[in-house]
Amino acid sequence: MLAHALNIDLADLSDAREVEAIDRWICARGDTTPFHRPAWIGAVAKGCRQQALMLVARRAGDICGVLPLNLIASRLFGRALVSSGFAVDGGIVADDSATVEALAGQCWQLAERHRCPTAELRGGRLPEDGWTRKGGAYLNFARPLEADDEAQLLAVPRKHRAELRKGLSFDLDIEIGRDRRLLDIHYRLYAENVHRLGTPVFPKAMFEAVLAAFGEDADILLVSKDGAPLTTIFTLYHGQSCMPYWQGSALAARAFRSNEVAYFHLMGHARARGYSIFDFGRSKVGTGPAAWKKSWGWEGEPLVYAARAAPGREARDINPLSPQYQRKVELWKKLPLPLASLLGPHIARGLG
Question: Where's the BioF2-like acetyltransferase domain (predicted)?
Answer without folding.
Answer: 159-294
